[in-house]
Design goal:
Layout: H1 3-8, H2 25-58, H3 60-67, H4 70-96, H5 100-127, H6 129-135, H7 143-155, H8 157-172, H9 177-200, H10 204-230, H11 245-277, H12 281-317, H13 321-354, H14 363-378, H15 380-395, H16 399-424, H17 426-430, H18 432-465
Helix pairs in contact: 2-3, 2-9, 2-12, 2-13, 3-7, 3-12, 4-5, 4-8, 4-11, 4-12, 5-8, 5-11, 7-10, 8-10, 9-10, 11-16, 12-13, 12-14, 12-15, 13-14, 13-15, 13-18, 15-16, 15-18, 16-18
Length: 466
């Protein structure tokens, strides 16, 4: 290892980064997670505002068109974003081990993979856009608007990958604040574009899609500028830029299983949305409104999990296995406090939340969406356990193991789609997420405990042999 290279780019000279291998696990996790959570809440708030604008000023049909393909975007973007998060795990581990030359080599090779992913996925997605919408039983009366919106989302894939890869690399070094700031700017930019394109120019669903595409490009540009100016520790130099087959393999072994985990989960979501779409446009609109609010609340659980991936990655890199267990229990306590907060908001006010999306004449949409929110809310602690354990396993470097929890989710949602939705109609749709969370936890709880015991035993052996 080149000591001169490491000294030149030592993160101790850089601002914004956090070493999570020391200090209180709870404080470290919260310090990292809070900006992350605020950023995603802001992002989801934009999604809510966008749906409100579309539902109230364009119509219920347009709201259904925007939401008809949400599970498809979850499938494709889940793979892209999950892969980017996985590519950052070796970076976090190298940072925890203070091997900065190795860290920058991982960065260089992760960028190579990201470029290939962006090109291939964008071309395939755009080419099969119509077939994808037919696959999920998109109602004929909203098909054209749904195609327009989905095609524009596919065109934004390179920018989305660029943002998520750069943001994941920044977070791998313990800096979650700046990606949050960039989400603020891009979300405000998106809302401003919505106002201009939908209200000012009357572009309808086309305007909503164009606004999202341009905002994604803006957020990726902000990340790039920040890394070039303030986080030069991530910029490879000299031989660190070289193609490295071994590092490519390690990156793929971490990133692809994480991406596939989201995609496998999304197969079940697509099955569920397809079953829901077959119920008719009213139920598509109900599902769209409920999912927008659901993500606003559940993104907190997701991002506590993201914080755990970085926390576990840094600590396993530093050989601090005992801190991993402490961090997981602290994260579970934080999650339960947040669950109580969600219950106090969702149970009494779900109907009022749903009335933001449609006018008073669409009471059926409000009733269905509020039912979806309340049923899901009862099971939020199970979702919290799922995200914390899944991301912890990924941060420890066992993405293949965590991927199996996605398989459990997929099987559960497919079962709900095939049996509960035909029997219970929209109530069956409401049970899709809770059943999937239960199935994933049945696998994750024993898997994490056995993995932790294995790593602790291995760590003891390594200490004895030193």
């Amino acid at each position: 290892m080149d000591n001169n290279t490491n000294t030149l780019h030592s993160p101790r000279t850089q601002g914004g980064m956090t070493d999570m291998t020391v200090g209180s696990p709870a404080r470290g996790i919260l310090r990292f997670a809070v900006p992350l959570v605020l950023g995603y809440i802001l992002q989801q708030m934009y999604q809510v505002i966008d749906a409100v604008i579309v539902g109230r000023w364009i119509g219920v049909g347009a709201l259904a068109a925007v939401g008809a393909s949400s599970s498809i975007m979850f499938l494709i973007m889940g793979f892209c974003n999950g892969s980017c998060a996985g590519f950052a795990i070796p970076v976090a581990q190298a940072f925890g081990a203070k091997d900065f030359a190795k860290m920058r080599s991982y960065v260089s090779n992760a960028v190579r993979i990201g470029v290939v992913l962006a090109v291939v996925i964008t071309l395939l997605s755009c080419a099969f856009c119509s077939k994808i919408l037919h696959l999920v039983n998109t109602p004929a009366d909203i098909f054209d608007d749904a195609w327009t919106f989905l095609f524009l989302q596919f065109l934004a894939i390179p920018f989305t990958i660029a943002y998520n890869l750069q943001a994941s690399l920044i977070r791998a070094l313990g800096d979650s604040k700046h990606p949050f700031y960039f989400l603020i700017f891009s979300s405000l930019f998106n809302i401003a574009l919505d106002a201009v394109l939908i209200f000012g120019l009357g572009m309808g669903v086309l305007g909503a899609g164009v606004a999202t595409l341009l905002a994604q490009a803006f957020s990726s540009a902000l990340c790039y500028g920040f890394i070039r100016r303030k986080m030069t520790v991530l910029i490879p130099q000299g031989d660190e830029r070289a193609y490295d087959n071994k590092r490519i393999s390690i990156l793929l072994n971490n990133g692809v299983p994480m991406g596939l985990q989201f995609s496998i989960t999304a197969v079940g979501v697509i099955m569920l949305q397809s079953a829901n779409n077959a119920l008719g446009t009213l139920y598509v609109a109900s599902f769209t409104a409920a999912v927008r609010i659901k993500y606003l609340f559940t993104c907190v659980f997701e991002n506590i999990g993201v914080a755990m991936a970085t926390y576990c990655g840094q600590n396993i890199g530093a050989g601090e296995i005992n801190r991993v267990r402490r961090g997981v229990f602290d994260a579970l306590r934080i999650m339960l406090v947040y669950f109580v907060f969600t219950f106090l908001l969702i149970y009494p006010f779900a109907d009022e939340m749903m009335r933001m999306f449609v006018d008073g004449s669409e009471q059926a949409v409000v009733d269905n969406a509020a039912q979806f929110m309340r049923i899901a809310n009862y099971f939020y602690p199970l979702l919290g356990v799922l995200t914390i354990l899944r991301y912890s396993i990924q941060g420890l470097g066992y993405s293949n193991l965590s991927m199996l929890s996605g398989v459990m989710e997929m099987i559960a949602r497919c079962g709900v789609s095939l049996w509960l939705v035909p029997a219970l109609a929209f109530t069956g749709v409401c049970l899709g997420d809770p059943v999937a969370w239960v199935a994933a936890d049945v696998f994750l709880v024993p898997a994490f405990w056995l993995l932790y015991r294995h790593l602790k035993h291995t760590n003891k052996l390594n200490t004895i042999n030193k």
